[in-house]
Design brief:
By secondary structure, the protein is α/β, with parallel strands linked by helices. The chain is built from 30 helices and ten strands.
């Protein structure tokens, strides 16, 4: 609902909690334009995007808002907000652009003050009227005033945020939450230094007086500083969350903060893509080509940051049709590309102190999916520093479908005796249907000590029905300590392809060789044939070897065959050992038997352990019991955990 009110006295026209947007017009010629005062949502329901949180690139779930990562300042922010809640107060989060100030501030508010109503005045709005409005609210009503990018509310004279207005807002019991970029804070605080050198004229005196007022105003805030570069603890917490973009940021943020990587990245991507326009329209078409070259050189797997001469040679493959755009010089293009646009990041980031080589900002590399031109692959191979880098480029070329480029680089390495190259050539030959040659290359790689080739050879032998030979190689793989899950994945692939008999033969061969995950796979195949006693034997063998998750599989098989009491016994054993899947299955089994209280207990245990399916089932169970509020909480947690509802 939108309301427009004209010719009213300030302080009398604001309605709280009942409208979404309120436009306040004034006939006073001296008043700046006032736009929107928003007070229709509680802090706990506020939308981060509306409040200024930068969007990231869409993740695999279609969301542009990654899960919140606990920051080191969170506890301090929560403490300050809790103190401000009692009698009003002001808290300021200060930090570099894209450090994550807005997200951290909102998260702290939603944890500490979720039930307060949120006021978000537009820059230029008369904040005195907001203070008057808060004074008219019932005494028990307490609000939050949100001032993201505080500098936008300064330098507006009496209509903006002044020390007097801030004191008035806090006196009304409001909590004022603000964010401010470090560069603006530094500008305001410079007045202290400049005052020591004196003032030369009246205008300068006026400016310093204004700055001094700002500094005095800032001192009214409880300050929390947020670092742009994340601490090792923050990075570790980010790595533990199940989000593909966070995982990407953890792996690639480098010298930049994770928040900067995710927030600045989309804007830098837009700047790069918009650059391919005429210089008369503000474009940098050659700059676009230079950045494109740097991005694609990184995508080839070239480890060394490209120097100027390589960028100059490579960028010509991206300049088709740019002549009418009146491109700038290469020097101008390079200068534009490395100029920081947001935070500390430019499109190209210097890779050495002498600024003689540059890397593309990693976000651009991760966000790009177009085909790399063949000449750029060849340039990358030409500049590879050693055999391993050359092989990495060759492997990436094969993944891109450029098999001629891959083989041209990889086969000479294989013939010279490079073990990983031998294995890869074998993989490529098998993909071409040349299985005899593949087997030969796998054997050569194994002779050179490449253990990955053992698994590849075993998979090839299984596909040919040579089970006894495959079993021999899998035993060798066990002796070499290869990961169990890699072996099991071969059997799972056969099941997925509908080749169940082959899968069963493979599972038995791998199980006999000591692969515990293959034992469980074999148990499922035996269970499907009704051979539950044999299935139990293989599961127990895996359990005895420490594979506690096999308890869940065994309980499932027993329950499916009607051995409910025995299934419950195994589930309890797993649940008592802390296996979340066993807790969930035990809860489900109990609920289906009508033992609701016990079932709820184990659903809760599994949900507390982070098992999202348990959150869903618990929410549904509570809803059926009429405990709707609790049900919503668990279902919301399930959504936040990316549960498939």
């Amino acid at each position: 609902m939108h309301n427009a009110i004209g010719d009213v006295d300030r302080g009398t026209a604001v309605q709280a909690h009942t409208i979404e947007n309120l436009n306040i017009a004034s006939s006073g010629a001296d008043a700046p334009e006032r736009e929107v005062l928003w007070a229709s949502v509680r802090v706990g329901d506020a939308d981060p995007r509306t409040l200024g949180v930068h969007p990231a690139r869409e993740n695999r779930n279609g969301s542009t808002l990654p899960p919140y990562v606990e920051r080191d300042i969170d506890a301090e922010l929560h403490r300050l907000l809790t103190e401000a809640e009692l009698e009003g107060g002001a808290v300021l989060v200060e930090g570099d652009s894209t450090a994550g100030k807005t997200r951290a501030a909102l998260h702290a508010l939603q944890k500490a003050l979720p039930n307060r109503f949120l006021f978000t005045p537009a820059p230029g709005q008369d904040l005195r009227s907001l203070s008057d409005h808060l004074a008219a609210l019932p005494e028990e009503s307490r609000e939050v005033v949100w001032l993201d990018d505080l500098n936008r509310y300064l330098s507006l004279g009496e209509y903006g945020l002044t020390e007097t207005t801030l004191q008035s807002l806090c006196h009304q019991g409001a909590v004022v939450m603000a964010t401010l970029r470090s560069e603006y804070a530094d500008t305001y605080h410079m007045s202290v230094l400049e005052n020591a050198w004196g003032r030369r004229n009246a205008r300068r005196h006026e400016m310093h007086g204004e700055r001094d007022a700002f500094v005095s105003l800032l001192r009214r805030f409880k300050l929390v500083e947020l670092e742009r570069v994340w601490s090792p603890e923050e990075v570790d917490r980010a790595s533990q969350l199940d989000d593909d973009l966070l995982a990407e940021a953890v792996a690639h943020h480098g010298a930049h903060g994770i928040a900067e990587y995710m927030a600045a990245g989309p804007e830098l991507l837009r700047i790069w893509r918009r650059a391919r326009r005429s210089t008369a329209r503000g474009g940098y078409p050659r700059g676009y080509a230079v950045v494109s070259a740097a991005v694609d050189l990184a995508r080839t797997g070239l480890l060394l940051a490209p120097k100027r001469d390589l960028l100059e040679r490579a960028h010509v493959h991206y300049t088709f049709g740019i002549a009418p755009l009146r491109p700038e010089s290469f020097a101008q293009a390079l200068e534009w590309a490395e100029h920081p646009s947001l935070g500390a990041s430019g499109l190209l980031v210097p890779a050495d102190e002498e600024r003689g080589c540059w890397r593309a900002f990693d976000y651009l590399v991760e966000a790009t999916t177009n085909l790399v031109p063949t000449p750029v692959w060849e340039l990358a191979l030409e500049h590879a520093s050693d055999e391993d880098e050359c092989l990495a480029i060759s492997t990436n070329a094969a993944r891109a479908g450029l098999h001629k480029v891959a083989i041209a680089a990889g086969e000479p390495l294989a013939r010279s005796g490079h073990p990983r190259a031998m294995h890869l050539v074998g993989v490529w030959r098998r993909g071409q249907g040349r299985e005899k040659e593949a087997e030969q290359w796998f054997c050569k790689a194994i002779d050179k000590g490449n253990s990955d080739a053992i698994l590849s050879l075993g998979g090839l032998l299984i596909s040919q029905g040579r089970m006894e030979e495959a079993g021999w190689w899998y035993r060798m793989a066990t002796d070499n300590g290869l990961a169990q899950d890699l072996v099991a994945s071969l059997g799972n692939s056969l099941i997925f392809e509908g080749r169940k008999e082959e899968a069963k033969r493979w599972y038995r061969s791998a199980a006999d060789a000591g692969f515990f995950d293959a034992m469980v796979g074999l148990a499922f195949e035996l269970s499907d044939q009704g051979r539950i006693r044999e299935a139990k034997y293989w599961c127990c063998k895996a359990i005895d070897a420490g594979r506690t998750n096999a308890i869940v599989s065994l309980g499932f098989m027993l329950n499916r065959h009607g051995l409910v009491e025995e299934a419950e016994s195994w589930y309890r054993r797993g649940a008592d050992s802390g296996v979340a899947g066993a807790m969930f299955n035990l809860g489900h089994l109990l609920v289906t038997q009508g033992r609701m209280e016990e079932g709820e207990y184990w659903y809760c245990k599994a949900a507390d352990a982070g098992f999202t399916s348990a959150m869903v089932n618990l929410g549904r169970l509570l809803a059926e019991k009429g405990r709707v509020k609790e049900a919503k909480q668990w279902l919301r947690k399930a959504v936040d955990s990316r549960a498939d509802l």
